[in-house]
Each structure stands twice: as structure tokens, then as C-alpha cells.
Design a protein that fits this description.
Chain A is α/β, with parallel strands linked by helices and 219 residues long. Chain A contains five helices and 15 strands. A seven-stranded mixed sheet of chain A has the order 1-2-3-4-5-6-7. In chain A, helix 3 links the parallel strand 6 (93-96) and strand 7 (113-115). In chain A, helix 4 (172-183) runs antiparallel to helix 5 (205-218). The longest helix of chain A has 14 residues, at 205-218. By secondary structure, chain B is mainly alpha-helical. Helix content of chain B is 74%, strand content 3%. Chain B has helices spanning 2-5, 9-19, 25-48, 57-61, 66-82, 89-102, 109-143, 159-190, and strands at 146-147, 151-153. The termini of chain B are far apart. The chains are: A alpha/beta (219), B mainly alpha (191). The interface between A and B is medium-sized, with 28 and 13 residues.
């Protein structure tokens, strides 16, 4: 689904667990795209063809999946990264934080570059802020597009809840600090890592603020 | 007549053994080495994994006496000296402490100082090398339209870096081998 120019979201609506994805269209040289969190190739419990569904959604938006030049992984858990192994075979570069690199390697993938806290510049004119946001996993990152006030939060933030911290490397204190940092940003479009009890795409500054307020009240 | 024709299993086995060619002294030594060296190496691995304390090394190796004991100790010393690698400093320092203890020195400041100097020099050179190679890797990513302060090249996958790092390791290997060899000699002879 095209949200606005250059930004598309693909909200998972299957029965099994899988993540939400998004795509920054035409931001790389040659009109290539950046895909964030391709999710599972096939979901583990119900065998849903998750990657094929995602690629079909991208095609429906009039975009060519073979033009995905870079895949960014918010973190290294299988329900976010599995499809990246296949996309890498088709020529896409893969990026994630170094501290989750080992998780991706266990899935059979290899990062082409790591991302750390700082600015990611694409084709010299498109800018994303990368925030190292540990807590759900040690190398979790979130992406902020300041120009359109979009935050891709991965599994740090869901609708009225947060990501788990009981996986290896999880840390509730770190997650709280990561979320506090996100809450201080000016966000109008918040894409969560999963559609738990909601599509996971929270729109509008007030609704985003309310979500952070509720989360931080009990976290 | 019949009794003479029936042989016990023991008699059959002894008959077969008597037909085997005699082993030379070298072959016997080789067999003993194959039998006892792994025992020493296993003690070394248990120590490196933290299962044994440094004070337990000599008593563990000392369970075997004579030639077998010497082979076990050689296996142990070989295992520890082989663990002295610049890429794994924590394991190397544990191995070094084990070898110094086996040599009965308690605290060998010279070995620790030689190791510290080698490691310091190597890490400094490796960091400089990584920085130099990363600049090239950043340029290659920039050509794909990917740049900025968030971007960190994956040097482990960079062919140029790997080649240069292998050359750097080769450069340090003679000095490292001199240290290993000295520690090995002292630890073996002390036993």
C-alpha cells in the first residue's frame, strides 16, 4: 500500500506470526528500492507463503521487486529476516546492526554492511536516521525519516504494547530507554513490527503520542 | 586326537599374535604417542574451557608416570602453546598462565611482557589496516548510493582486508612462535 510518495507499507494479515514490512521506493541509484524487514519466507506453523505475498503486494503497487537494491533488517529474529536470505541471492544488499549479525548468520545470511546510530544517506539526497534501539534484541535498530515524520519501530513498539524482552539478549531497561528516545521524536506515521490487535500502522501525531504515553505508563 | 584339534579362543588369539611381525622401537613409540598424547591434549582443552583451574594442570598430567607421563605432558603443553594466538587473546592469556604454571615459575613476568608487547603491536597494526581498508569499502558502498555516518562496512567479508590481515598475521608469526617455543621448552623440561 502506497502511503505517500516514496513510502509503501505492507501490513501482514495472515493467520500465522509474521512481521509488517515497508519499502522506500526509488531512493537508490537507478530507481532501486529499499525494503525493510521482509519477514518469513514461509511462516513456520501454517506454511503461509509470506515472502511471495509481500512481493505480490509490491507488484500491485506498480513496483518491481527485482529492483530491491537494499534490505534493511530492524533486528535479526527469523520472523523479520528469513526472506532477506532469498532476496540477497537475487542481488540485494543486506544491512543490520553488527550486534544482531550472528542471528542473521544462523539463518544462513551474511550482512553486506552494518548500520549503527547515525545518518543513512541514499543516493546522496534521501536521508534516514538510524537509531540503535536495543532491548528486544541487542542489535535492534529503528528508522526515522524526518522529512515525512515516519518512524519504523520494528519490535520495540506495538499498538498499546511493546516487544518481548525474554529472548536471548533482551533487556527491559534498555527497551524502555530506546522507547523514550523514540517518543521524543516528532512522529506522524508509526509502523510497528507486528499487527498485534491492530494493523500495527499508527497514523497521526496525536494517536502516536497517545500510544507512547500508554506504553511508557506501564513499562 | 580330537582334543588336540580343538583350540580355545585364547590359543587362537595367541597364535595370531605370534604370526604378527615384531614392532620396531619407532613403531612402539609412535603407538604410545598416539595413545597418550590425546590424554594430555584433553587436559589442555578442559583447562582452556575453564573446567580445570591452573593449579590442577600439573596434578592431572602427573597421573601418568614414566614415558607415558612425558607424552601426556607433551600433549598438554602442545595444546596450550597452540592456543597462543593473537586473534584470541583471552584464550591465549589463559594458555600462557597454564604454561608458566607447568614450568613451575609461578609468575613469569618476561613471558607476559613479551606477549603483551606482541599483542599491543598487532592490535594497533590491525586497527590501522581495518581503517585503511574500510575507506575503500565505504567508497564501494557509496558507488551503490549507500553512505552516511550510520554505515559500517563489513570488513570480515572484504577480500582486500582479509588478504592484508593474513599477511599481517604471517609477519607476526615468527615472534609468536619464538614465544610459544620458549614456553613449551620450559614447561616440558620442568616436568
Amino acid at each position: 500500500m502506497k502511503v505517500f510518495d516514496r513510502f509503501h507499507v505492507y501490513l501482514w494479515n495472515g493467520r500465522d506470526n509474521n512481521c509488517n514490512s515497508c519499502l522506500f521506493a526509488g531512493v537508490l541509484p537507478g530507481g532501486k528500492h529499499v525494503l525493510v524487514d521482509p519477514g518469513h519466507f514461509v511462516t513456520p506453523a501454517m506454511g503461509e507463503s509470506a515472502l511471495e505475498r509481500l512481493l505480490a503486494g509490491i507488484r500491485r503497487d506498480g513496483l518491481d521487486p527485482s529492483a530491491i537494491g537494499l534490505v534493511i533488517l530492524t533486528h535479526g529474529h527469523p520472523d523479520h529476516v528469513e526472506g532477506a536470505v532469498d532476496l540477497a541471492r537475487l542481488g540485494a544488499k543486506v544491512a543490520l546492526h553488527r550486534e544482531d549479525g550472528e542471528l542473521f548468520r544462523r539463518m544462513g545470511g551474511e550482512a553486506d554492511l552494518y548500520l549503527q546510530d547515525g545518518t543513512l544517506e541514499l543516493d546522496g539526497e534521501f536521508r534516514l536516521d538510524v537509531l540503535h534501539s536495543p532491548g528486544h534484541s541487542p542489535g535492534h535498530i529503528t528508522l526515522y525519516w524526518p522529512e515525512r515524520k515516519v518512524l519504523v519501530a520494528g519490535d520495540c513498539v506495538f499498538y498499546r504494547s511493546t516487544g518481548r524482552t525474554d529472548f536471548p539478549g533482551g533487556d527491559a531497561g534498555q527497551l524502555r530507554r530506546s522507547i523514550e528516545r523514540m517518543a521524543a521524536l516528532d512522529v506522524e506515521e508509526l509502523l510497528c513490527g507486528h499487527p498485534y490487535g491492530h494493523s500495527g500502522f499508527i497514523r497521526g501525531r496525536e494517536e502516536v503520542r497517545e500510544n507512547f504515553r500508554i506504553i511508557l505508563t506501564y513499562l | 586326537m580330537e582334543e588336540e584339534g580343538i583350540k580355545s579362543a585364547l590359543e587362537l588369539a595367541m597364535e595370531r599374535v605370534s604370526k604378527l611381525p615384531e614392532l620396531s622401537a619407532e613403531e612402539i613409540a609412535e603407538q604410545r604417542e598416539k595413545e597418550y598424547r590425546p590424554l594430555g591434549e584433553a587436559i589442555g582443552h578442559r583447562y582452556l574451557e575453564g573446567i580445570l583451574a591452573v593449579g590442577e594442570l600439573a596434578p592431572e598430567a602427573g597421573r601418568h608416570e614414566g614415558d607415558s607421563g612425558r607424552i601426556v605432558r607433551r600433549g598438554l603443553v602442545g595444546c596450550l602453546s597452540g592456543a597462543i594466538e593473537l586473534e584470541k587473546p583471552a584464550a591465549a592469556e589463559r594458555a600462557l598462565a597454564g604454561l608458566v604454571a607447568l614450568a613451575g615459575k609461578g609468575d613469569d613476568g618476561a613471558a607476559a611482557s613479551d606477549w603483551g608487547r606482541l599483542l599491543g603491536e598487532y592490535e594497533e597494526r590491525r586497527a590501522a589496516l581495518a581503517e585503511e581498508q574500510a575507506a575503500g569499502a565505504r567508497l564501494r558502498l557509496a558507488a551503490l548510493g549507500i553512505s552516511g555516518s550510520a554505515v559500517v562496512p563489513v570488513m570480515e567479508r572484504d577480500e582486500g582486508y582479509r588478504t592484508a590481515l593474513a599477511a599481517l598475521r604471517r609477519e607476526f608469526e615468527p615472534a609468536l612462535e619464538r614465544l610459544r617455543s620458549r614456553l613449551r621448552r620450559e614447561a616440558e623440561t620442568a616436568g
